[in-house]
Request: fold
Amino acid sequence: MTAFAAAPITAAAIACGALLQRDLRAFLRSRSQLYSSVLLPLMLLAILGTGVSDGLNPASAIIRDGDYVSYLAPGMIALTALFSSTFSSASFYRDRENGMLRTLLASPHSAHTILLGKALAAVVIGTAQALIILAVAVLIPGIDLAWQYGWLGGLAMVVAGILALNVMLSGFALLIATRIRTMQGFHLVMNLVLFPLFFLSGAFFPLDELPEWLRILGLINPLTYPVDLLQTAAYAANTDGFLGPAIDFAVLGGLALALFTVGLRRSARAA
Amino acid sequence: MTQIPPSSNAAAVALSDLTYLHPGGRGVEDVTLMLPAGAVLGLLGPNGSGKSTILSLVAGFRAPQQGQVRVLGEPVGRHLRRHLGVLFQESCLDPLMTVRETLWLHGRLFGTGRGALRRRSDELLALAGLAERADDPVETLSGGMKRRLELLRAVLHGPRLLLLDEPSLGLDPNSKATLWEMLLQVRAQGAALLVATNDVAEAERYCDTVAFLRDGRVIAAGAPADLKRNLRRDSVRVEWPSAPSHIAATLAGWEGVGRVTCAPPLLHATVDSASTFVPQLFRIANGAVQGIRIRESTLEDAYFQLVGTPLDSDAPAPVGEELGSP
Reply:
């Protein structure tokens, strides 16, 4: 038989590719996961966006012309990544429960390679879904995205931001998986930690007009930076009132790299 | 991964003075065993006797605390896993994947090329009678089919050593026979089989060598025929809680009675003729016998006689004592 004699990196790449393909296939088969993680952000955009725009007439300087729907769009893109990444990371638990993880770890590959393959799938799925929401947002006539760095430049920044956000979330999920043994516990922790953080990320309301203590909490919040990046790149007409892409990329990139590396290392040790 | 091919002439497995104790204290101690290339070695013992621990040490999922494990002539390590096939005791399948996808994923993890993988999968699916279910989700298969699929997955990459943890546990006789038919074909292609089991008939029928395990130690090892050499034709197992301490010696002195083992409340003997022995026994027991089981002697009787306790005296396995903890 043809058990491989490929170079270690090639062999690891083949293994990661196979794991990615497998999780993608499972995701596409799971219609409820596919729809729910796309539909909820779209519903929020339609209901909350319109409700606040028309019902409350927001007067913040950051929300251009009181158009809250457009302001909300980048946040919903980030929320999609958050949902999708959480769902996809849960496949680690499914594999642990149905025993698949044992067979994966009994292959010639290190636990790092196996977990990297699974995390890559979560990143790809989360990024693809967030980009679907971006495409929908671009196509909706009522949503006004300013693309201050040009359409192409802004899109490149959004894609990079979404990718980095998903890497960060996957790293965080891997870290949680080393501590929490059950899928229910995992979802509970993700909801308890990520949702409050998301509310305080600037996705729903601008941070710069909040009381000082909330603004400081917002600045400590890791999710503030990807949301700010998406808003700056796609929605904002200028950087006034935003942190700006340099800070966003520096913090988000650093956090993504750190969380993913530590998460992968710890979960490989615990696997 | 190393590119050095493991020696094809070397023993498939060589364990010397191997010790691994779980945090709870159980595990294996001073185990020395050898499995020649292309042979079948059965590890026979009750639950918690150390069978799965041995398998996990051979697979390289655990590192020995003392002693040495050599697999295919090399010190055990992850680089050897491409030559190993592992069948875990519990089902390890993703119910939502199809049969073909299950094999595809495994083949890719072991670096099998796409074309070769397709051909090999088709060939194995036909062999296992699963060709028509190839595109069905695993969750729709019967228990026997799932076990066969797991075996196909274990042999897909052409391993030279198969580690099997209770391969036929929970299968009906037909599924069991089919599974072993497949295993023997794998063996015929040159693979060695290391089988953890507490199925006596399986060990007796299919293993070249059987090692009796008790409390993490190998008590006896040899060919099934050699282990059974001192047995008489019939096996008699008596439940006699109040048996006097000298009874084993007394019974062993009777004509036609082989070795007698007393492990209260059980008394075990193999005899030339149960129909002669049992009435005599009832006479001296004077109504104290609470139960009796008579059948033809098997390896289970050899186990009782050589180990001193019955094979079915299960103890719960300590936490972590399972193969599935790589």
